[in-house]
Each structure stands twice: as structure tokens, then as C-alpha cells.
Amino acid sequence: MSDNNIQIFDTTLRDGEQVPGCKLNTKQKLVIAEKLDFLGVNVIEAGFPVSSPGDFKSVSEISKLIKNATVCGLTRAVENDIKVAAEALKYAKTPRIHTGIGTSDSHIKYKFNSTQDKILERAYEAVKYAKTFVEDVEFYAEDAGRTDNAFLARICEAAIKAGATVLNIPDTTGYCLPNEYGAKMKYLMENVKGIEKAILSCHCHNDLGLATANSIEGVINGARQIECTINGIGERAGNTALEEVVMILKQHPYLNLDTSINTRHLYALSQLVSESMGIYTQPNKAIVGANAFAHSSGIHQDGMIKNKNTYEIIDPKDVGVTDSAIVLTARSGRAALAYRAKNVGYDLTKLQLDDVYANFLHFADEKKEIDDNDIHHIIESSKVYQ
Ligand code: KIV
Ligand code: ZN
Question: What CDD domains is this protein classified in (predicted)?
């Protein structure tokens, strides 16, 4: 692994699965986990073992199945959680325990009725205990986005002293602006003693639509892991979308940050997660939405037909989509109609096209989208073809 390789930590099966009403059964989780491994993610967070017997079973079965990725289980900074997670992970080739505690003033005061010093002590003890079971322990500082940087640095140092290999800095409430989140990472890189013994991880929520931007700012400023979910699913407005951060890093090579994801499997996995969870993906969703590579206005279609580069920054095949789509609507021009007509077997002359286009506009005003059957009908019923 190079210093510039960003670890992709997938939490579709843990944070993603916290979407209300979308429980997956163990069989569905195993299918998704195997595909995530095939996609090339570095870590699969398989669940929260102490939360239910079903979650325990899923983490245990996924641990047995996965050949390449690290398998991770979530815990609170509670001994029994950690013991149960270690038991669920015992068959994993490379297990990781992900333990932690809330660190912001509101978490310390209202959730724990405690003090910073006592929280720091609990964090240290939790990591130390987790280390008695596994080598790889990730510590999370819940609500780090709203935690004072000086305290965050202190608790990160304590976690490193106890043996943490990864320090997760969650923007749990999706509150941070990208420059703030980036500055937080920079501060930790510069102020945490022993930081060279661990890596920083971005875990961003999307309440303000900034999860992807924040994660990218995080890695630009030194973090080396991104926690994300397929389609960005997760509690409330969701988590960072895996397909977005991976494609941003791929399409911007000058950042000199890469991942080990085989991007050609992204679309298929997006479909699988959406179908298994019964959560449809919005059509304009970046990278994997139905319209991500569809062009409908006349000006764009004309540009696309001349050269795809004019309106596409990603080759759809790179994410597993067969081809871009030229969608025919009343806003389409002659170039798009000629292009689609040719695809279904009609090579129209300029004169024929003028006539067919007039007929097409009548149809398109009535029908939102013109499909291949409509094209046949429009052409065959045009004057020039009678
Ligand atoms: O958003 C969050 O803070 C989390 C932690 C439990 C890692 O999901
Ligand atoms: Zn989260």
C-alpha cells in the first residue's frame, strides 16, 4: 500500500443499514459483502454485533466468507460490546474492532453526564481492551465534527497510546463545512503526538449535502481512509457515497490519491443494494443514477454526438454502464433524432429528416419520452415514407 492509497471502508451493512425500515437478512448481507470484496474495498464494516443476535450472526458469517477485505465490527466503549464483537469476528482472516465514544460537549454533558477526563479514560480503556483480542483497532470520536480540536487531539493521543491503528473523525451530524473538516484533519496531523503510528479516517454524514466534499477535503489534508456506503445510504440524509469519492479521486489524478476499487463494478453493486434494501436511487444521483449519463436537451445532444467529451467527464463503461443515452424529448434537435433513427435502422437524408422532425415534435409534445417503437412509428407515418 502506497502512502497515497486511500483505504475504502465500506459501512453499507452497518451505518447504511440503519436506514429506517430497511433491514437486510443475513443471506442478503452475505451476497452484498461478497460483492464488496470483489469490488476491492479494504474494509467491510459488517455490523454492530452486540445490538442483536441477527447482527452477531451476520458479522460472524461474513467473517467466515470474506477472503480479502478486513472485516470490522462496531462497539461502544463498553467491555461487553467489545467481547461480543471479538467473538463475532473470530473467524475473520483480518478482523478489526471499531470502538469509540462521543467526544463533543453535548455528548459528554447530555449523553454521558460526564467530563472530558473521564471520557478520555474510557476511550483509552476501550482501545486497550479491544487490543487484547485483535491487532487492528479503530477508535471513533463520535461527533468529532463538533468537538473542540484541542480535546480531539488529546483523545486521539490516548487512543494511539492504547494501540489504535485508525482514528475515525466522524462528522456525525453532517454539520461541518469542507474547509472546517479539512482544517480539523490538518490540525490533527500536526498536533497529535504519535500520529505516524495510525491513520486518520473520514466518516461524514450528509445532512447538509456535504459528506462527499468533506471526505475529499479530509484526504487532501492527510486522512488516509474514507468511510462510505453504496449509494450514500444511511441514517437521515445518509453517509458519504462510495461511488462518488472513488470516482472523484480517479477523475482527478493530479491529487495523487488513489483507491484499489475496480470501478467497473460500481453500477451493478448500486443496483444490488438498491433492490435488496427496497430503496430506489434518485435518477439524478451522481455516478449511478438513471440519468447520470443521459442527455436530453438539443444543444447537449448535438455536442455529445460530435464528441462525448463535450458533456461527459466520465466514460460510462468505467462505472459499468453500457453507454450514454440520448433521450428523445420535445427539447431534442434534429441531430439527436437522426442519431437515434440510425441506431434503429434509418439513415435519413436531410430532406427526410426535416419532414420526420416536424412529425416527431408533434409526438414529443404529447409524450414525455420517445422510445425506439415510437421512432419507427413516427418515421413510417411521415410523408416522405408513404
Ligand atoms: O456517525 C458516527 O459517528 C458513527 C460512529 C458510530 C462511527 O457512525
Ligand atoms: Zn455514522
Answer: DRE_TIM_IPMS
CA-wise closest residue to 279 among 267, 270, 290: 270
CB-CB neighbours of 106 under 10 Å? 12
> Do 269 and 39 contact (CB within 8 A), yes or no?
yes
In this structure, are residues 97 and 133 in contact, taking their beta carbons and an 8 Å threshold? yes
- Report pLDDT digits (tens) over 83-104: 999 999 999 999 999 999 999 9
- How many residues are present in the chain? 386
pTM here is 0.96
The answer to whether the beta carbons of residues 241 and 232 sit under 8 Å apart is yes
Share of residues in the chain with pLDDT > 70 (%) = 99
Interatomic CA distance for residues 169 and 88, integer angstroms: 25
Buried/exposed 43-52: b ≥16 CB within 10 Å, e otherwise: bbbbbbbbbe
Paired residues of 231 in beta bridges? none
How far is the centre of ligand 2, averaged over its atoms, from the C-alpha of 112 (Å)?
A: 19
Q: Assign 134 a pLDDT band (cuts: 50, 70, 90).
A: very high
Ligand closest to 48 (CA) is 1
DSSP for 5-20, please give it.
BPEEEE-TTTTGGGST
Which atom of ligand 1 is found nearest the CA of 143?
A: 3
Q: How many beta carbons lie within 10 A of that of residue 93, not counting itself?
A: 12
C-alpha distances in Å from residue 198, one per residue of 173, 188, 314: 24, 11, 34
For residue 190, give the H/E element and its range.
Answer: helix 178-191
CA dist 309 and 204 (Å) reads 32
- Specify the ligand 1 atom closest to the Cα of 239: 1
Q: Which residues have C-beta atoms less than 6 Å from ligand 1?
A: 15, 140, 142, 168, 170, 172, 203, 205
Q: Residue with the nearest Cα to atom 6 of ligand 1? A: 142
Compute the 3-state secondary structure of the chain and give helix, strand, coil in percent, each to the nearest 5.
50, 15, 35
CA distance 267 to 288: 6
